[in-house]
Each structure stands twice: as structure tokens, then as C-alpha cells.
Inverse folding.
């Protein structure tokens, strides 16, 4: 038997708990009884645990009752964990439990519980893109990779937000029981065996802005209004009425990115909007957003998101979904 436990609490995101548990539970359909997963929920509090969506889950045991050694111990996440703290007794127990576990990790913001227990120090980890900066600030010795769906650092496994817990669990299942079992589970759950790209493709548009009314903000507004024009550093320095050297230094200081990075990000964000909301051909979008040709746009999307513009449209395009739903409804 492979013993898996998920540490949960009131306010946890229910899918952080049941997503991984469903992956391992479905795996038992394809495994001999002696290879089954034995699943357990451990509660940080006593009694029913009311999740963030209002669903109540009953833990199998309170964590304080547990001295077992698990093959895998995961910590669920929740929307309040950036500020939420628990007792030092819990963190001490977690340090002991992870020391005994074969593998351990977190789903989404559960990484903050690991961090508060000192279990992310000098480790490489990930979390939901919206919490990555906060986690990096809270645990400065950790290397937080904000664009990863999941990541392994030795015995430590961490995942991005919510459904990425399923991606991580399939990865763990592949390591533990083999790719055929993991593929069968993915098919039964109707999910991708391995999703394309990182989690930045799911985040809001990434174009950073400087303080309003500053010279840098004025240049940024010029860029957004003139995406198809020449937006070289020389041109933008002229807009700011500054020398190229002083402008580049000031822009990087105030915007936290170089002028070239800002221009590329602005063009990419404009392309994302068009890919999501229209059925405009890729060549036209590339021209309208200043990429000049579809090949250049494709290269930027692959580098930034790990997916092509066509894959991005297929995943997020509302026009695509509307057409597909209409066709299927009429079948």
C-alpha cells in the first residue's frame, strides 16, 4: 500500500483536497490490491472543516493524533493562507512528519504553511501565480518559479493553483506506478496527461505600469496607442524628451522592465485579447499588434508561455468556444 495524506483546514480550497485524492483513488482501479493507494485527510482543527466554497469535509484524524510515516504528505491551499498562521505545534509536527515521509509537498498556497514551518528554506518551489511574489518575499532563501505548474526539488513537490494539484498528482502517479496507469487515470478524469505551457498563460495581462503621470507612464501610454509603429528605445526616448541612455535607465528603474520588454509585453497582451475575443486570422493579429509577422508572434508566445498563439486561442478563445458549442448543440 502507498500511504497518502493531505493536511486540510477550515478555509481550504476543496479542489486542492479532492483533486489529488481523486487522481490516486482512480488509480486504484488499475492497480493490484497490494499496490493500492491508502488515502487519508488530516485536519488541522477538530470537527468538520468548512472549505472556502462552503463544502464541509470531515477529516479522518486530527494531525496531533498522527505519528505515521507517509509515502506522500501534501498540504492543501486556501485563499487566506498568505496572512493566515497556525500554531507552532502544527509547524513542529509538520517538520517531524515531513522528515519521516518519503515525499512531501503542497498544493497552491499550501506552500505558505510549508514556508512557515521552515520547509522551503533554500528550496526551489512554486505556488499560484498570484501568490508567487508574496511567497518569495516571505521566504527569501527559496527560489520561487512563478511560471511552473508543478516542480520537484528532491523529496519536495509543489504545485501552482487549484487544478495544478491534479497535474502534480498525475506526475507523482507516473513516477510511482508508471505512465500507463497515469494515462488511464487522466482519460477517466478527462484531463490532460501533461498540459502545455506554464501558469503565466492563465494570469491576467502582465504589462507593468509605472506611477500615473510620470514620464515613464506617458511613454507607456504612447506604446499602447501605437503598437504597430517603430517603438525602439531611440523613438521612445524622443517621446520622453530624454537622451537614450538616461531614458533607458529611468524606464528600467520605474517600470521594473526594460523598454524593449515592455513593448513586447504590451504587444503580447494586445494579441491575447484578440485571440481570446475574436476569430481574426493570426497573420492579421500579428500585424495589428506590431509583431509584423505570425512567426515572430509565435516565437514570443512560445518563449513567454510555452504555447503557440493557436494553442492559446484553443484554450481561452471565447469565440472558439461559442462556435464549438453552437455546432455541437446542433448535432
Amino acid at each position: 500500500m502507498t500511504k497518502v495524506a493531505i493536511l486540510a483546514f477550515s478555509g481550504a480550497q476543496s479542489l486542492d483536497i479532492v483533486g489529488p485524492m481523486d487522481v490516486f483513488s482512480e488509480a486504484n482501479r488499475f492497480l493490484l490490491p497490494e499496490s493500492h493507494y491508502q488515502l487519508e485527510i488530516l485536519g488541522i482543527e477538530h470537527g468538520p472543516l468548512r472549505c472556502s466554497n462552503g463544502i464541509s469535509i470531515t477529516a479522518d484524524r486530527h494531525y496531533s493524533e498522527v505519528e505515521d510515516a507517509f509515502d506522500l504528505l501534501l498540504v492543501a491551499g486556501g485563499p487566506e493562507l498568505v496572512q493566515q498562521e497556525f500554531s507552532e505545534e502544527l509547524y513542529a509536527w509538520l517538520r517531524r512528519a515531513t522528515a519521516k515521509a518519503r515525499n512531501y509537498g503542497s498544493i497552491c498556497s499550501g506552500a505558505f504553511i510549508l514556508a512557515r514551518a521552515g520547509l522551503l528554506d533554500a528550496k526551489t518551489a512554486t505556488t499560484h501565480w498570484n501568490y508567487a511574489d508574496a511567497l518569495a518575499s516571505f521566504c527569501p532563501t527559496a527560489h520561487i518559479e512563478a511560471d511552473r505548474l508543478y516542480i520537484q526539488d528532491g523529496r519536495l513537490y509543489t504545485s501552482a493553483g487549484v487544478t495544478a494539484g491534479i497535474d502534480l498528482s498525475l506526475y507523482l502517479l507516473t513516477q510511482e506506478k508508471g505512465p500507463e496507469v497515469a494515462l488511464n487515470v487522466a482519460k477517466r478524469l478527462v484531463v490532460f496527461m501533461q498540459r502545455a505551457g506554464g501558469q503565466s498563460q492563465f494570469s491576467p495581462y502582465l504589462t507593468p505600469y509605472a506611477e500615473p503621470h510620470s514620464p515613464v507612464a506617458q511613454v507607456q501610454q504612447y506604446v499602447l496607442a501605437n503598437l504597430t509603429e517603430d517603438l525602439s528605445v531611440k523613438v521612445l526616448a524622443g517621446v520622453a524628451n530624454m537622451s537614450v541612455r538616461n531614458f533607458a535607465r529611468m524606464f528600467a528603474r520605474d517600470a521594473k522592465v526594460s523598454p524593449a520588454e515592455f513593448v513586447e509585453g504590451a504587444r503580447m497582451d494586445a494579441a491575447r485579447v484578440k485571440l481570446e475575443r475574436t476569430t481574426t486570422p493570426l497573420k492579421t493579429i500579428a500585424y495589428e499588434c506590431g509583431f509584423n509577422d505570425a512567426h515572430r508572434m509565435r516565437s514570443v508566445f512560445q518563449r513567454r508561455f510555452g504555447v503557440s498563439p493557436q494553442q492559446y486561442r484553443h484554450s481561452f478563445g471565447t469565440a472558439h468556444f461559442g462556435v464549438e458549442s453552437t455546432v455541437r448543440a446542433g448535432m
